[in-house]
Every structure is written in structure tokens, then in C-alpha cells.
Fold this protein.
Amino acid sequence: FRRVLFRSRKTILTRRQSSTGDARLKAQSDAHDNLQLKTFQRWWQSQVPSEKITDLYADVRNGVALCKSIEKLEGEKLPYKVYLAPKNKFEEIDNLANSLKLFEDKEMKLVNISAEDLHDGNKKAVLGLTWQMVVHYELADLSTAELLEWVSEVTKGFEGIDLADRGGNKVWETAFCDGRAFAAIVDYHSSAYKTK
């Protein structure tokens, strides 16, 4: 009986410790997700200041912000009809589908991102699309050394960002893992955009 009791008590303690660790990891993950969401919302807002981006997942749903941001980033009108005031779900999805088709034509890497997922507010799809847009439009022409130099300059003065290269380009794995460097870059761009 004692053996069974001891084993069950040990199991309960292990489960408690595990759940405490899980709760801590979940809290860290949630904090990271919130920082990433805020950062991406600010990036979208800097691209389409005419649109009020307060809830990224909802504000991307109708495709209007996406179409306007593409026009700004491409510097030209889109080659398809854009519904600026979509009247129904079909027009919203049409905006999104045409935008995704344009990205595919430009050989932008979109994996498991569909117009329906964006319309449904799928978090991974919206965040994945945002990141691919940043990479494609903001970072595509920079070499690694140029990018590191630029990021170092932009993030200078922000606390908690360490961009020291310790060899083997580990800087990218460490400096960007918590989202602070990316947030500093977006903050820099938001500030620069406001002064124009």
C-alpha cells in the first residue's frame, strides 16, 4: 500500500511541477505572441495609415488593407479589381485571393496560406503572410552583413537587444528570438513615417 501511495504522490508532485512549468511556458509564449501581434499591427499601420488597424486578424479579413498595402509597396495600382467597400464575403475573399495570386506570381513564399484562412482570421496565416511581406518587400535586397549593419544602427539605444556577432551568424538566432529587435525596427519605421 505504501509503495502505491508513494508512487501516486510522486506522480501528483511530478504533474504539479510539470503543470507549473507548462503554465510558465504558456505565459512566455503568450507574451511573445502578443509582442509579435503588436509589432505586426504597427507594421501594417505604417503601410496603410488610411486604415485603422486595431485588431490585425479582423482588419485583414476583407482584403482592403492588404490591397492598399500592396499598392503602396509595389508603387502602382493593382492589376485586378479591388473592392474598397466589399458588400459580401465573396468580394472580401476575392480581394484576398487576388492578392495571394499576385504574391505567387512574384514568387513570394506562401505556405499554407489561403484567402479563406485570412478571411477567417486564422492567426498563423495572418502572421505568416505579414512576415513574408516584410521579408519580400523590406529585406529582399540586403546581404546578411548589410542587414546586420542596418539592424544594429536602427536598434541602437534600445535596451535588451544584443546584436554582437559571436561567429557563425548566431546573432540571427539569438537577437530576434524574443521579438525585441523586430519591435525596435518597427518602432523606428513608425517614428520615421510619422515625421514625413
Notes: The CA atoms of residues 149 and 163 lie 9 Å apart. The two ends are 76 Å apart (CA to CA).
